[in-house]
Amino acid sequence: MQRDIDESKRELARVKELLKDEPRGLSITDISKRLIMNRNSVSKYLNMLLVSGHVDMRTIGVAKVYFLSQRVPISAMLDFSSDLILILDGRVRMLQANDNFLDFFGLNHDDIAGESLPSPYLPEISTGGVVSVLKEVLRGTQMTRDVALEKKGSLHYFSVKFLPTVFDDGKPGATVVMEDVTDVRNAEMDLKAALRDRDLLLNEIHMRVRNNLQLISSIINLQATEISDKKARTLVRETQQRIESLALVHQTLQDSPDHAHIRVQEYLESAVSEISAFLEVDGGRIRVIVHSDEAIMGLDSGIAFGLVVNELLSNALIHAFPEGRRGTVSIRVQRAEDNEISLVVRDDGIGLPAGFDLASTDSLGLTLVRALVEEQLRGTISLDSNGGTEFYVNFRAEE
Questions:
Q1: What is each CA distance from 135 to 87, 93, 102, 173, 175, in whole angstroms?
Q2: How confident is the model over 228-265, as pLDDT tens digits?
Q3: Backbone angles phi, psi at 43, to 5 degrees
Q4: Are strands 286-292 and 327-335 parallel, antiparallel or unpaired?
Q5: In this predicted structure, what is the pLDDT of residue 5?
């Protein structure tokens, strides 16, 4: 019996040695001729080598070609990975671990061989939660968890994959793969901290600018009370209103989630309320309707847009409904692709004088509107004065 075993070992070694010199592989016939060995014996030895993983086979045409396996042993594969890897059997006993795993936890192979979880050697991953997860994994469920482990006073963050594993004998097991994401997590935390600092800074800037503008508005208001000339007082009050419009932009930015973008619907609702109150508009006589889709814009576009809305709405409320006339002003904003914004301000009032030309008007407010649209927003403006007045403004807002 022993003699047969020794002979098989020698013949197996001869087959492997031959295939070692023939990396492209050989057929059963080739091996039989080269070793002067019976084909049936060659076939038997090749099958033994196939089962043990020493030899692989591929089919070329109708021939089967055998060559030495290029597979790497599991123990070597484990150490190719930069992750921390632990392999457990169906009873949650530790079978193998790669060097990265052992080095991180300060262990050696003898410490873990045959040890079951929970283990005093690995209190960090012996929690009830981990053991419960492993039980689910042994039932075939793949899971991922994020964990933080302390080592020498420093926190290390891992993305841990718990993978169901089936061994060669068909028995279940589990593989734990721990990817060190400490650098990524620290970078994320640094970025979050930087964003928080940025938000605080932007919030502080908008608050201070708004407060300063409101202070200027209050000073102008005090000065206006000392002006006896009605026309001069009106001009001063219009300036005050424009400053209030700028302050409202910064208030809206301060209240927005990122302190950098204006949500147009919210801004319009606040602007209508403030302008109506400033001009002492009778809400029962003149109704203002506002509608905007999901339009947003940044600071530069927002300031110019706010001033345009201020001028067009104020102009309609002051001039479109004289002598107690009732009516409606509507403000509609729509956003198209690439943040193309269309603004329509319409009233059903008395309309503009015959022959009115926006390009040559001597109205300071409408001259300002035209300059803001064309020079600041780089957009276009047009109007229709049939049956009231309707201004069309189109521009592309920065996001």
A1: 14, 12, 23, 10, 12
A2: 777 777 777 777 777 777 777 777 766 766 667 778 88
A3: -60, -40
A4: parallel
A5: 62
Of 1.10.10.10, 3.30.450.20, 3.40.50.300, 2.160.10.10, the CATH number of 2-68 is: 1.10.10.10
Q: Which residues of the chain have pLDDT under 70?
A: 1-6, 51-53, 69-80, 128, 168-170, 194-195, 197-198, 201-203, 205-206, 213, 217, 253-254, 256-259, 399
CB 68 within 8 A of CB 46: no
Pick the CATH number of 281-399 from 1.10.357.10, 2.60.40.2470, 3.30.565.10, 3.30.930.10: 3.30.565.10
The amino acid occupying position 30 is: D
* Tokens found for residue 334: 């729509």
Which residues have C-beta within 8 Å of that of residue 158, sequence separation ≥ 6? 84, 146, 147, 148, 149, 178, 179, 180, 181, 182
| Fold of the CATH domain 74-180 | Beta-Lactamase (3.30.450)
Question: Can you name the residues that pair with 329 across neighbouring β-strands?
Answer: 288, 347
Give the DSSP H or E segment for 343.
strand 340-347
Q: Is the pTM of this model over 0.85?
A: no
